[in-house]
């Protein structure tokens, strides 16, 4: 494997050294309270209580013995390996799509951080770690790239959305060439949106690499520790927001076009929570990081309470909202966000089952987005952002509403679709996000691996097997499309790329997880009850009442 001390990057003279400007100096992110530091213990969350010895590299490899592969799996592995990108002779990622018939790939010939995650897991679960390690280290180097959009530089810890390997002539050396990495931090993306989720996915994948290989030396490296801190510094920086959720623009995650998710979208919050739990496990605790670790713990505690208390809806909660009083001015207000009961959409009243529930898509003052967003709800289960009862409720809802959320192709990215005047106002009349297409109610088979992981965690693998059986019948025949259209996922998406890599990798990862359910347990988290007891309110003087004590619903089972 090549040395990572030197890396050639397009426009490499703009690369700056990795430094920590704020947190590295021990800045107290949670206020001037010495007692916080004294009470904090350098406890490392052990995820699903799996030890390194139990799930070391050898065990992972032994758990995946040679077995008979179906023809569908053989085709999928061939296509996945065909999508691998090499940099300086070493594998460094997979392109978004590798359709040989596509003459205008646009940016689908690039390596996307979020797209590579299922590919990385498929390789790791199959005992192939080199490509994942290379990917993590090269994207880490790109984090230090000087990023500018119209003469403005975004946050230092921002990870790129994607990168492309280009072969360029060597200066002054005729006939000789070199590979360079050309990153995109959103300055070339449609809408020029910063990829908020890239850094979160990078941290999540870094933890998965250590858990599945037993190689923890990677996450202990100084440059990797610095990269983690830079991402956390960016996410935990002070702002005007009153809530522990991350405030982002529209299109800053998998839903990367205007879809009315600006504010505090569920997907970002679930990934944020997961990344914080990963970072807490991996951070080396010393004098320069102790305040950061305290800040991470406090944010996890506040975020879990906020999401469980205010984002969760079921039949009982919707009935409460239906009877809300408005314009309450009090610290003890029940309708804290001044939600108007008329916001409850007509479709939801008859749709919500008696035994299930879910996390809404967004919450802001006087606004609740009641759409069901699949990725965020699945990651709430995987990360234990949801309680065990809420996790069961989410899977109950998916099972009860199978014809709406799965139908003929798993899984709807969101439900229901925006239609008519609502579609024109919220999307701006986006021709790609027409009703029941693309991100507006389209069906995305790549979500299958996350569904599988959630089902295995909740001991309901039969639901995942049912979904896998659906895709096995259609994906090979349809040439592994990016997404499907129509209310029930009957048509290949009108602008869907074929041989979409994360569609292929999502299927393979699901198969590997179902074959090795014991490995799924180390990719998820159990409830951390200490988080529920860790409230910063009790550590600050002058605070008379904590909102948790007056909350009407329970934040734990």
Automatic annotation (TrEMBL):
Reactions catalysed, as given in the entry: Hydrolysis of terminal non-reducing beta-D-fructofuranoside residues in beta-D-fructofuranosides
Enzyme Commission number: 3.2.1.26
Record bears the keyword Transmembrane helix: no
Swiss-Prot/TrEMBL GO biological process terms: sucrose catabolic process
A Pfam family: Glyco_hydro_100
GO cellular component, one term: mitochondrion
Keyword set includes Hydrolase: yes
Region forming the signal peptide: none
Family per record: Belongs to the glycosyl hydrolase 100 family.
Protein name, entry field: Alkaline/neutral invertase
